[in-house]
Amino acid sequence: MKNLKILFLHPSAHLKRPMYILMPMGMINLMNLLKEQNFQVYAINVGLELSLDSGYRIKDDLEKTEFDIALIDLHWHEHAFGALELARLCKEIRPECYVVIGGFTASYFSDQIISDHEYVDFVISGDGEKPLLELVSATSGGGTEKISSVSNLTYRSSGKVITNPVSYTADDAYSANYSDITSLKHWEEYLKCNIHFYSRGQFWYSYWLCVAKGCVFDCSFCGGGKNAHQQIFNRNHLFFREKKQVTDNIRHLAGLGVHTVNFSHDIQMAGVEYWESLLSDIGKNDIDIGAYIELNSLSTPAFAEKFAETFSLNYSTLVFSPLSGNEEVRAKNGKGYSNSDLLKNVELMESLKIPYAVYFAAGFPFETEESFNETLELAEKLSSGSMLKMIFSTPLTLDPGSPMFNNPGEFGITPHFRSFKDYYERSRKRACGMPFDLYGYHTDTLSPGQMNSLQVKWMEFMKEKFEDIISNLTVSRVNFL
Description:
Elements: E1 5-10, H1 25-36, E2 40-45, H2 46-52, H3 58-64, E3 69-73, H4 80-93, E4 98-102, H5 104-108, H6 110-116, E5 122-124, H7 129-139, E6 153-157, E7 160-163, H8 187-190, E8 206-209, E9 212-213, H9 226-233, E10 239-240, H10 243-255, E11 260-263, H11 272-284, E12 290-294, H12 301-310, E13 317-323, H13 327-332, H14 339-352, E14 356-362, H15 369-382, E15 388-395, H16 403-406, E16 413-415, H17 420-431, E17 441-443, H18 448-472
Parallel strand pairs: 1-2, 1-3, 3-4, 4-5, 8-11, 11-12, 12-13, 13-14, 14-15
Antiparallel strand pairs: 5-6, 6-7, 9-10, 16-17
Helix pairs in contact: 3-4, 10-11, 11-12, 12-14, 15-18
Keywords: Iron, Iron-sulfur, Metal-binding, Methyltransferase, S-adenosyl-L-methionine, Transferase
GO molecular function, one term: catalytic activity
Protein name: Radical SAM domain protein
């Protein structure tokens, strides 16, 4: 088999400045999988490079880099334009290379991407471990005769779009390495990145670690829920990685100097036996590290106590996502707990000195201007906590594959985006400085203008409360995303 040179590329959502720098966690595992097979692997995060050098041009980097296969992630729809521009550049600079795209969004729109973008050769849908190895093997001799047998693959043949069945789905028996990022250019600096930006002067390192695949819930707004996994990955259950693998990954990250490991899933979803054993293993191994976990619901007292015992709290955060201050709106969008239970959980965090953050959002299905006032009222009650790191309300954008996208009538919304082209154009307009559709939908109860007004209300609230939140804070705000 030819010793192929394989280039991984993470796009920026904007061509000339960094936007959405965070890389999909699965991309790291795929890099290591190919390294283990002795392929030459190199990775570039375009947003990170733009952060380090505002004059950076990915075209110059591609011209200096030898590669036979370019693997570009299109996980989040925010990268729809940036990912396809990278694909175009790769073909322009190396016409003989194969361009492969994968990720949630690419999987959802695989047929449309292959049909409309001739510079993309292949889309891998769903889990990519086995399909990628099969594809590399099938193309290593310079021909494509074996392509028809590659799992989960969409491609062109004789002018037609061909989609091979999603016959491979990773399960809990698979071995993975999500923690070795040394194939990435400037990987040390990547540890200073959060979801949106790079902080040059940041002295703490954080890293997102995949601990599970799948979900058992279908929150209205989420394109990564139970049904999306069934539709895209052919995955019918949630599984958590073997505890020893997770512990080994965390130990490796601590050895790299990582201060905070950001868990991909709320490990409470795995059951008491799993999280108790995992956290005990971390403690027994004397791994000095903090943790960031976005709770799917609330924390049990036992979990909160074990969390506080296991992790360095100066670099830790538990995150609540009540979505709305109105309990009916919250329940209809996927979160079933009451305001009273949330406030009791916050008291638990305060008593254990666990830093926490709270996320709301504006523009949910079934929300009204009146119900959003309840969000402001709840946020007011929460804003005085001494362990509160931050409280947010962010606008939603319609996720492909989410229940809102798949069943708009059920959620009382009018979608503005239905195709990959819609997401591509939104991303392109934003990258080009043109007006673009922020939300991609409106609801039966809120027009786009009213949705904007809710966000303005929130900004006014935060302008008034921000100094109080900061002054009340008794813990370090380092590591916050």
